[in-house]
Design goal:
The longest helix has 18 residues. The model has no long low-confidence stretch (mean pLDDT 95). The chain is α/β, with parallel strands linked by helices.
Length: 310
C-alpha cells in the first residue's frame, strides 16, 4: 500500500488515527502506530507537562513513527511547540488556526507538518504556507469542524483538484469501504477519529465509549458555530444549547452556557447528561469497543477485500 503518505510518514498503511481531545493519549497512539498506521497524541486536552509525559511514554511503547496534534487556539501553544521540539517529535498535525503561524518554524526543525482544513480556500492557504500534507475534513466529523458544512464526499475531490501536495481524507470514515471510497475520490490516505473513541486504548471514559456504540443515525448535530463548530450527541446539554438558540442568543450567552471544561466533563469524566459529547455521524456504524490493533486490521482487510471484488 505504498504511496506518497506512507513514504512521507514512513508507515505501512495510509491510515492515520485522529488526535482527539480527551480520547487520544499515548496508549492509543502507540497501539495504532504498532499496527502499521500513524498514531496521534491529541495535545488539545493536555497541559504542557502532561503532553511531555505522553510523548515520552509513547516513545517507550513504540519504535514506529507517531505524531502530535496541536489545535492552534490552545492558550499555551508556545510551550506545547517547545516540548514537541525538545522531545524530538517528527510529525505534527496543526488545526483550528492559521498554518502560517508555526509551519516555517516547525519545518526548520526538520518536522513534517500537516494541517487540517474544511474547505478548498483553507487547503490552498495551508499549501501556500508550506505544509507537507493536508487533512480535508468533511462536516460529518466530530470535534472542531468547518462552518461550511461541506461533506467529505464533495470536499475531497474539490480539494484534490486544487492542490499538489498529499491529501488525507477525514470525516465519516470508519470502515474499509469508507477508506476505499475516500481514496477513489482522490485521497492519498484517511484519518479516522470516531472509530478509535470506542477502542480499548482510548482515554475516553467508559460511559462515553458506551454511548458512542449506542448512538444511531440522526442522533448527532453540528452546533456552537459561533464559538468553534462541534458535532454533539443529543443529550441534556445539547437540548439546553438547542433551547438557547430559539432565543437568538449573543456569543457571550452561548459562552456562559458552555462554561469551562464541558468536554472534559462528558468525554473524560463520564457525565453523559451535562457533558459535551463530541462524535462524528459515523457513530451509527460503530457497534462495539475493540482493541485499536484489531480495528486497524479489520479496516485494512475490508479495504483490500472490497478493492479486489471491484
Amino acid at each position: 500500500m505504498a504511496n506518497r503518505i506512507t513514504s512521507l510518514f514512513n508507515i505501512q498503511y495510509p491510515f492515520i488515527q485522529a488526535g482527539m481531545i480527551w480520547n487520544s493519549g499515548y496508549k492509543l497512539a502507540s497501539a495504532v502506530s504498532n499496527a502499521g498506521g500513524l498514531g496521534i497524541i491529541g495535545a488539545g486536552s493536555m497541559y504542557p507537562e502532561v503532553l511531555r509525559e505522553h510523548i515520552i511514554k509513547c516513545k517507550k511503547a513504540t519504535d514506529k513513527p507517531f505524531a502530535v496534534n496541536v489545535p492552534m487556539l490552545y492558550p499555551q501553544i508556545k510551550e506545547i511547540i517547545d516540548i514537541i521540539v525538545e522531545e524530538g517529535v517528527e510529525i505534527v498535525f496543526t488545526s483550528a488556526g492559521n498554518p502560517k503561524t508555526w509551519t516555517s518554524f516547525l519545518k526548520e526543525k526538520g518536522i513534517v507538518v500537516v494541517h487540517v482544513v474544511s474547505s478548498v480556500k483553507f487547503a490552498l492557504k495551508a499549501q501556500n504556507a508550506g505544509v507537507d500534507a493536508i487533512v480535508a475534513e468533511g462536516f460529518e466529523a466530530g470535534g472542531h469542524n468547518g462552518r461550511e458544512e461541506t461533506t467529505t464526499f464533495t470536499l475531497i475531490p474539490m480539494v484534490k483538484e486544487k492542490i499538489t501536495i498529499p491529501l488525507i481524507a477525514a470525516g465519516g470514515i470508519a470502515t474499509g469501504r469508507g477508506m476505499l471510497a475516500a481514496m477513489v475520490l482522490g485521497a492519498d490516505a484517511v484519518q479516522i477519529g470516531s472509530r478509535f473513541v470506542a477502542s480499548e486504548e482510548s482515554s475516553a471514559h467508559k460511559n462515553f465509549k458506551d454511548i458512542v456504540v449506542a448512538t444511531q443515525d440522526g442522533e448527532t448535530e453540528l452546533t456552537l458555530k459561533e464559538l468553534a463548530p462541534v458535532r454533539l450527541i443529543k443529550n441534556k446539554f445539547y437540548n439546553q444549547v438547542k433551547d438557547l438558540y430559539t432565543k437568538n442568543p449573543s456569543v457571550e450567552e452561548i459562552k456562559e452556557l458552555l462554561g469551562r471544561a464541558r468536554a472534559k466533563k462528558g468525554m473524560f469524566e463520564g457525565n453523559m447528561e451535562d457533558g459535551e459529547l463530541e462524535i462524528g455521524q459515523i457513530a451509527g456504524l460503530i457497534h462495539e469497543i475493540k482493541p485499536a490493533a484489531e480495528i486497524v486490521k479489520e479496516i485494512i482487510a475490508e479495504y483490500e477485500e472490497v478493492k479486489k471484488s471491484l
